[in-house]
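QA checklist item 7 of 12: single-chain prediction sanity check.
[x] sequence parsed
[x] length recorded as 292
[x] structure emitted
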Amino acid sequence: MHCVHSADLAAMLAHYGPGLLYDRNLLPAEAMTGYWTASRHRFDLWHHAIGRYRRIEKTAPAALLRQWWQEHVPMLEEVLVSETLTRVYAALGAGLDRQCEQSELKPVLHSVHVTHIEVRNRVLQLMVYGRGSSIDQAVRLNRLRTEVERWTDVLLGAMAAVFPEPLEYAFNQRRAAAHGKDVRSLPIGAARDTANWLAAATLRSVLERRTSPHPALPDANRQVARAVMLCLRPDLFDSVGLMKSLWLKRMQAGVEQADRVLEEMTAPELNSGSILGGYEAVRSSDTLRRLL
């Protein structure tokens, strides 16, 4: 699995994640366990590769350093690109904990987030102070870093338009907040969905141009992505296999609430006073007022 696909998954979570908050359901325990285990395994592989560079730097000739860079540039790209998914998932977990008044998801997801930052800092040190890399490699990695930071803030800003926790995980909170303000100015529904889809498509196009064609750790990336996808329950999808947006969930919840009230209104044992009370309950529903 290429790291660009993990960015695709991050964009999908950023778009549909608020729908998970609306359901007020915590993520399955096996999803958290699998995500932590898969992430730790990938961190170990990254640390091992960077540790090998440090050993070569101390004892080996410059030719081996250049060879290390040629072999491991895709891995360095993966560290940078996959952080988008780490931050988006951590933001979603923090929002779910607040919504459900629990403290079960954020400690796990935030721990993975902090460890990813540590690996990223080691990669940045290699980019600045490491020997053996060419100017072209350093420039490409730095441009990729800039794009990843900017687009991660775009995704988190779109989430922050619905709940505040994503700003905590942004690279630049002011930039993410500004994007969230732009998203809130769009009408809820097709306009926001289209903006999110265009952002995801642009993100993918940018990353494909900036990254190597072949992944460094495809199996490790796949395990992390599978663990993240365990949070997506079957009821989150519609009949054609597309995830339900927050707008659609709100509309369905409003319709279900209206059906329940109307059933009570039409029950034969209800008197005229209870019918009037049921009608007032329908009129007072915030969801229905938005639909009428």
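[x] summary fact logged: Residues 253-259, 269-292 have pLDDT under 50 and may be disordered.
[ ] second reviewer sign-off
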